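User: Can you predict the 3D structure of Pullulan synthetase? Sequence below.
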Amino acid sequence: MWISTLSVFAVAGASLCAALPTELTNFLLVTTSQLNPSANSSELKAVSATSLFDPFNQPALLLRLTGPGYGSLPNFTLTSGTLSTIASAPFGGAKYRYNSTVVAAGKELQFLASEQPAGNLALDEGYLLTVNGSREGWTICEGALSNDVLSWKGNGTTCEKTYVHAVTKAPY
Ligand SMILES: *[C@@H]1O[C@H](CO)[C@@H](O)[C@H](O)[C@H]1NC(C)=O
Ligand SMILES: *[C@@H]1O[C@H](CO)[C@@H](O)[C@H](O)[C@H]1NC(C)=O
Ligand SMILES: *[C@@H]1O[C@H](CO)[C@@H](O)[C@H](O)[C@H]1NC(C)=O
Ligand SMILES: *[C@@H]1O[C@H](CO)[C@@H](O)[C@H](O)[C@H]1NC(C)=O
Ligand SMILES: *[C@@H]1O[C@H](CO)[C@@H](O)[C@H](O)[C@H]1NC(C)=O
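Assistant: Sure. Here are the predicted C-alpha cells for Pullulan synthetase:
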C-alpha cells in the first residue's frame, strides 16, 4: 500500500503540485482508505464517488457511496466550516443551496436547505476533510435501503473507517 502510494508521488513528480487541490473552491468528495492525496483520484485506494440522497423524503439529505453509472455528482464549496452544494428538494422539487449541519459523533453527515451556523468541517492540507480538526473518524455504515452512508464515528456493526478527500475530478 505504502510502496504504491510512494510510487504515485515519484511518478507524478512536479505535476502533483499543480494537481493537488489546495486552491479548490469547487470540489467533489470521495471516500478512500488512503490518507495521502493522489494526483489522479482514480488511483486512490478503495476509492468511491459520493452523491446526495434522501431515503425517506426527509428534510436532511445524506451522502452515500455511488458506483460507476451515475448521472452526475454533486460539487461542494466549504465556507465557515460548512459544506454547501446545490441539490433538488425531495419530490423532484426546485433546486436549493443545501448546507451541511454541524457534524456530531454517531450521526450521518447531513445537509439542509436552510442557513446553518458556522460548522466544524475543514480541509486539512487543502484536500482532507476533517471534523474539529480530526482527520480520523469518518465511517461508512450501511444505512437506509442498503445504501452505504457517510457518518462521523459511526459505531454500528456494519461501519468501516474511511478518509474523505476533496478532489477535482471524479474517480470514475
Ligand atoms: C488515472 O488513473 C487511471 C487508473 O490508473 C487511468 O486509467 C487514467 O488514465 C489516469 N488518468 C490520468 C489523467 O492520468
Ligand atoms: C457544480 O454543480 C452544479 C449543479 O449541479 C453545476 O451546474 C456546475 O456546473 C458544477 N460546477 C462544476 C465546476 O463542476
Ligand atoms: C467539536 O468540538 C466542540 C467544542 O470542543 C465539541 O462541543 C463537539 O462535541 C466536538 N464535535 C465532535 C463531533 O467531536
Ligand atoms: C454509539 O454512538 C452513540 C452516539 O455517540 C452512543 O450513544 C452509543 O453509546 C454508541 N454505542 C456503542 C456501542 O459504542
Ligand atoms: C445555505 O447557506 C447559504 C450561506 O449561508 C445561504 O445563502 C443559503 O440561503 C442557504 N440555503 C438555504 C436554502 O437557505
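The first helix runs from residue 2 to 19. Residues 101 and 110 are 6 Å apart (CA to CA).
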